[in-house]
Amino acid sequence: MRKPSSKFLWQFLPLSALMVLSACAIDEPIKKADLLEQSLPGVTLPEKYKNSSAHPNNLVSTSSTASIAWLASFNDPELSELAKLALQSAPDLRVFAARREQAEAMMKAVGGSFYPNVGAQGKTGSKMGMDGSGTSGYYIGANWELDLWGRVRASYASAQQNAMAVAADQESAQLSYMANLAKTLWTARVLSYQASNAVDSVKHQEKILDHVKQREKVGASSKQDIALAEINLAEAKDRAFNLQNASAQQLKTLDILVGRYPVGTPLKNNQLPQLPTMMSTGVPSELLERRPDIRSAAARVDAARYNVKVAEATRLPTVSLTAGFGRISSEVFVLKADAANPSAGVGVALPIFTGGALEQQVNAKEAELQQAFANFAKVGLNAFREVESALSGEQIWHARYAELNQIYQNQKNIQISTDAEFAIGRIDQRQVLQQKIKTHAAHSNEQQGQLEVLMQRINLYLSLGGPAI
Description:
The chain has helices at residues 6-22, 32-39, 64-67, 77-89, 91-111, 151-217, 223-257, 287-290, 292-314, 357-423, 429-464; strands at residues 117-123, 135-146, 318-330, 341-349. Helix 4 (77-89) packs across helix 6 (151-217) and helix 6 packs antiparallel against helix 9 (292-314). The chain has eleven helices and four strands, in the order H-H-H-H-H-E-E-H-H-H-H-E-E-H-H. The protein is elongated. A four-stranded antiparallel beta sheet has the order 1-2-3-4. With 469 residues, it is α+β, with helices and mostly antiparallel strands.
């Protein structure tokens, strides 16, 4: 085998060095410990938030099905059906889906810089031609920038992190949207039931007023008793009107959330899901990796770090390899040769004086990085606040619901006793009707408490980035 000449080796050596330099790796995404130290330097976090070793930017791509899977824990078929409809039709969710596609397309566009740019151009004409030269020919060429300083790789990494941030934003939007949908549906059910109860209370108050009027005729009641009964009836009518209006508006809001025209589509049932048991597993230590808004903020920190690398590399020389193949001829000028010939070369561009523009671009990107760190700190502290508030809120409302339920059970027992006394003639119908009104009110309060417990569980899921594992 023929050995390569020393001349060839010396010519190939610089090119080999350039290829090796262009393959140098850029920095890895920031570690969680460094991210927390730089964004929250004066905050001491509990161990339950610090003992996870996962990286905050390890995003798991979520499908539409996965984004609503947590709703199944409430065992509410109507809610699951509306959630699927919202994913298909809700304008807000479609906006986030479009933003995600845009970010992914931008990432792929930046990734095209890793490959050579290949182009072709040709020209022909008459003896003089449009430019007076009478030249004709073609040229096929390629240009490839050697990424010596990692500018292209940093640009791609920044676009990749931005796409990851937008994906996390979409996941966060879907989580919040589905939470709002669940709350709206359950509130609509409670309002519908309360409105029905209020209408029954109006009927009871009307009967009470008639009863008081009859008693006044025989001297057992006074004009003041009639006035008081009329006031109670007016208040009952006002309450019924307000609840009916609120119920109708809530149904229209539900239509909007699922992407339907707001006609107030009737609900399939007015039953609330079973109350969830108190969460006993505690706060998951991977909170900083589970919440999509935190993962989004962390990804934007990395995107800003890579943008600083891009700005720094812009001040360094740009080296490009060129190669081509073409042919040119002229009807006017005599060319040295018009045969088709290949060509190759190396181009170098070095910014010498830019009036400080490149340095200021680096300063601007560094300021954006500090802003990203501050935003991560803001999002993280808000997450901790929401977790602590949601845990406290669930405990409080579980205890309060137990009291409201006990009041309702006691009132039902009183109602049973009152009905029994009426049956044997010990009391009149007015007292029975008054107890029915109180029973309706106690049941409405009990349902409101049940709704609040469910909403607190939704708030807890939102604060944790989904159901606790």
